Amino acid sequence: MNLKRLGAVIGAAALLAAGAVVGIAAPASAHTAVVSGTASCQSDGTYTITWTYKQTLTPDGDHADVKVTSHAPEPSTLYATGVGVSAPVDGQLWLNAWTDHASSGGQTGIPTRTGNWTTTFTQAGVAGTSKVATVSVQTDWQGWGSADNDGIVQLTGDCATAKARDAVASAIVTPPTCASTSTVQFAIEHATWDSDGYSTQPGTHTRKATADVGHLFSDGHAHTSVTYVIQKKLKSSHCTPTTYQTVVWQMPTKPADSSSATWPQTFVSATPETTETLDVDVPTTCGTYYQVDSYIDNATTQSLIAAAKNGTRLTSPNHPAESLAPGGLNTAWRFVINADCTTVVVPDVTWTDNVCGNGTSNATLTLPAVEGVVWHVNNPNTAEAPGTYPMNAGGPNIITATAAPGYVLSAPYEKSITFGPVRTYQSTTPGTDNCYQPPTIDACTNPLPGILSTNLDANGWDFSDTRSLGTNTYVSHGLKVSTTGNTSEAKAAGYHPVDIPLKDVGTPSIDLDGVTGVAPGLQLGIDRDGNGTWDGYLVSEGDTYGAGMWWTNKDGFGVAAGGGYPSLGTLQDYLTANPNAKVVSVGYSLGSGVEGSAIIRSITVGCQTFTFDHQSVQGAVASASASAPATCHAASTESFTIDNAEWQGPATQNDDGSWSRTAVATGDYVFADGSTTETVTYTLTPADASQCAKPTLDGSAVTGKCLADAPWIFYDVVVDNPDHVALDSHDVTITMSDGKGDTWSKKLGTIDSSTEGAGATADTTELSDKVLWPGASVAADGVTPTGWPGWTQNASGAWVETTGNFAWTRSVTSATLEVNPSLSVEVSYPPATPSCAAQPPVTTTDAVSTPSPDASTSAASSGTGLAETGSNLVFPLVAGGAIIVLGGAALAFALIRRRKTGTEQ
Q1: What is the per-residue pLDDT across 856-878, written as a single tens digit (0 to 9) for each?
Q2: Which residue, 337, 367, 383, sits at the end of a domain?
Q3: Residue 159: inside a domain, yes or no?
Q4: Distance, CA of 789 to CA of 774 (rounded, Å)
């Protein structure tokens, strides 16, 4: 590459972006060549670059050798399209040649075009990871000189992976109907619509889509645009019967005859009709002239009416376009000519000049009373009664006479006449006696009590002009005013009504703090003439337009324009022009359409100062206490009270075992100490076993009974455990002792645990059954006695008394019924009774001293069914480590002695 080409490449590189194409032309001259290109990703993972070469400003007859060389990336293949040549030789492609060079470089059939021409050629097989593709085009004109051009295409480098050309994006448009425009539906596959959205309004639209990763559109590109057309709904003539619009136009002057309209015509009214009619109401004001037209109600007519309502006037027939109904005169159009108005000759006003030495003037003018004339003094919107009025010193002083309805002024004025243009008074002679002195702005000498506005009481402030992107927030000793963004919704404003003569406003001020972005401006609502009607705001934006300058966007204040506003001046300027003006409101405004923030500390107007503050209300309450005392099983529980506040999470336990919970006041409330947070601390008492009621055996009973001459012990053990205390033992035993070393003990059974623990569902549990008296036994049938305490059989089978076989139990003095620990009560073996022997049939009284083992004195429990007699004996029961005594009761055994037939004991 020569230095000229290198310079062109460097100069263009700064303009390139990913995927962009750039063609770099030779320096401006009489001959110009430009090369540019576009890239597409192929399904084989390579790029194909389509280059366009264009030659301009080449005289007819002049031709050139044009040779293309590929530079980057390698490898790639050049080939031409539409020029009828074969593949290039040695990486070079000839696009054109002088006649005698038509077979250059080993190529044949090279065109020999002259003058200006354009052709394309292609660079294929560019690696998919390439970031740039470059070709050099050398042009050598036969009749002028040569130029080198470089074509550069920036690539994204993401085409290396072969991609399927199956991405699809299309729009399907349905035709319009009489009721609606055409509609569109979109189809997309292996691609995603861009986020720009789409339009369904009538017109031609484009929607863009991007192929998914690994996919391309059919043209090899990753991006495509789909163009679709939305048509308007069908014309009414295609759907419904013809309708009409009857339109009234006002002509500027009286027509010369019944068919010669005058122009331009101004829109008055439009009335929909179902027939071609001109029968509508027309104003009857004198001196007015109207044309009434009947139009076919179509798009042209609707466009005409819409434009006319916005001020467009008819300048001549069919300008703007009209669709008159097909009828003739008195059907398609007609004139309405109202009577001429009464002509009024306006006399001149009377001016009286009285020049003062200080430059002010007490000049006056007198407005005569004339029927049909309305006077305006310096304000075209306010009518003045006839009389004498003072004139402004230095002007402007503009007096206008306007024809009242039904009247017309004498030619050439007709509608109005202005006296002036401006009369200016200047000081030419000394002296100020009897001169008109305009009022001046006075400083405050008697300050009024301030007006405080808070979040609890706005105190007259109105913030309703604030829009959705503006805020007014009360803060400590101020009002924070903010806007977000730059749309029309970015506005924050507030106003307070006042009644202050403009001359008494002193030096209005707004005290701002923490300003960021645009600051709010101070505003005064003004009643210009003191008639009780608001006429506009005077706005101060600091020194933006000069120190002490105020602007208004309303007309009629009589102060010179400036800063792009109808009036810009000092408050004295406004007072001079409007000596009777009053301030009816004071306020501020930030926006619309700007972003900013500031804290307003105060606003002062005249002798009144407005301040702002955020105030709190003492009313937030948060407390905690132990609501239920500890019991034998459960710790005490807490009870919370909260009002005008919210808890910040659950309670947490402190290192000392106490608990704490924090509350935050809501709204404008604070706690009693003025803070917005309150932490309450309380202590819970753990469970206290000493508070539990000890288990008792109230209701338990033990009874000795004689069944079929056998002694039994019946027991019913009842554990009363209302506080569900855990028992140390569950085994129930009965023990007898003679106090001399002889002891008998037997396990009666096991008490269940249904009354124990916090989850217990029962307060009592029972164990009931019977057991044989020690030393007694029964046969296998469980009924027939086979042994008695203190009795044994000798060798001959006779029963004899013995000191063994638990004979001592018949004279025990104590017995214990035990769960844990034990308690003894007095007890004795009951004597025999006539109905129950409780001893064997005795055939001898010989006594023996043969002890009997314990095992022979027990037998299984059995059912009853025989007569029972005896007495009750209640034993003490002990449960849960606490001795439970059934107070004063005695364990009683009913031993019933039976007399058997023919036997006497």
Answers
A1: 333 333 333 223 333 334 444 44
A2: 337
A3: no
A4: 7
